[in-house]
Amino acid sequence: MEIRGTKVIVRAPLFTSREEIDRFVNQHRKWIETHLKKAEAREQLKETVHKLTPEEVRDLADRARKVIPERVAYYAPLVGVTYGRITIRRQRSRWGSCSSKGNLNFNCLLMLTPPEVLDSVVVHELCHRKHMNHSSRFYAEVLRVFPDYREQHRWLKEHGDELMAMLGGS
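^ thats the sequence. predicted structure below, dont judge the formating
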């Protein structure tokens, strides 16, 4: 089951009965309602938020190419890891990612966040060099290096959709 835009999509094996599907959907009604509300709020944001121009996005990416590698270089020894290539992207749903080869990707929109939020994303991705999951050991490592992580993560949860909506069609 997934929410795409403001629609609920349910996939089931070919011979699943309608009753089984309905029962599954009813069991997850709360989840559906919660996520539909969030999806509708994101859609409304897309209509009202200031859209960045292509030039503004390029400027953010240029700034990110200078700032983010410095932050990665600062935190990598504190985490105790090495890393590969750093790429700055214009992503619509992620703040960062880490490949199994140690390459790091970061969203240029991080330049619109407070510096502590940017640092929390950098530490999060670097900690994936030790734990390629979101286990309790992973979060223990994140919190060891960045004790205020939860507060910065909460900032992203509260403001991230608005920032993502700024990409619009640019």
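The chain has a mean pLDDT of 92.
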